[in-house]
Amino acid sequence: MKPAEILSEVAEQAAACTLCELHHSRKQAVPGEGPADAEIVFIGEGPGFHENEQGRPFVGAAGKFLEELLASIALTREEVFITNVVKCRPPGNRDPQIEELQSCNGYLERQIQAINPRVIVTLGRFSLARFLPNAKISQVHGKAVRVRGRLVIPMYHPAAALHQPSLRSVVEADFAQLPGLMSAADVQETMLPSLPENQNPEQLSLF
Questions:
Q1: Residues 36-85 pLDDT 10s
Q2: DSSP string, 64-116
């Protein structure tokens, strides 16, 4: 199957999914959106109220801030793929639970494999934990590391900056580094540290 066909299939299956309890309260699944050949995939945590209503990721206040951040590095949301670790809204915007993360993992993995992006940007701690399970976002945000062959750049979730104004400048600074990190990855491909699945990122020298 072509990448676009795989993404369409994932979207259809997510819309009818009953693998976890989240399907009971969803209005619409939010599989994600963006081009099948996107160079960057942004992975957030889970849909919120507005996302559940519209079936699209990052359309609330955090989404508006994300669009501002993308514009600051000359990108639009139409150029990147945006998704979440869970495809249905957790009730009351609570944290995703382990069984929910596990149920949705196959959908996310198929999306990543289909798109094969140059870089994955994790937004928030649940997205980060999928790739760096032992990492603390306060220590690794804005840094790049290869995880199982893919360049991963952890960042705070845009919503965190809205709830904690002191983080806004941090998030903006991390985004400002993104083009340079991607360029450095191209130049230093063989020099980038590669992180085994269970290794603590604090033990590596991230750039």
A1: 999 999 999 999 999 999 999 999 999 999 999 999 999 999 999 999 99
A2: HHHHHHHHHTT--GGGSEEEESSSSPPGGGPPPPHHHHHHHHHHHHHHHHHH-
Contact 88, 122 (CB under 8 A): no
| Nearest residue to 142 (alpha-carbon basis) of 153, 131, 150, 128 | 153
Q: How far apart are CA 87 and CA 10, in angstroms?
A: 10
CATH number given to 3-186:
3.40.470.10
pTM: 0.89
Q: What does the pLDDT read at residue 194?
A: 47
| CB crowding 24-41: b at 16 or more within 10 Å, else e | eebebbbbbbbebebebb
Span 3-46, pLDDT tens digits: 999 999 999 999 999 999 999 989 999 999 999 999 999 999 99
CA-CA distances (angstroms) from residue 125 to 95, 114, 147, 149? Answer: 10, 24, 16, 21
Size (the chain), residues: 207
Three-class HEC string of 123-145: ECHHHHHHHCCCCCHHHHCCCCE
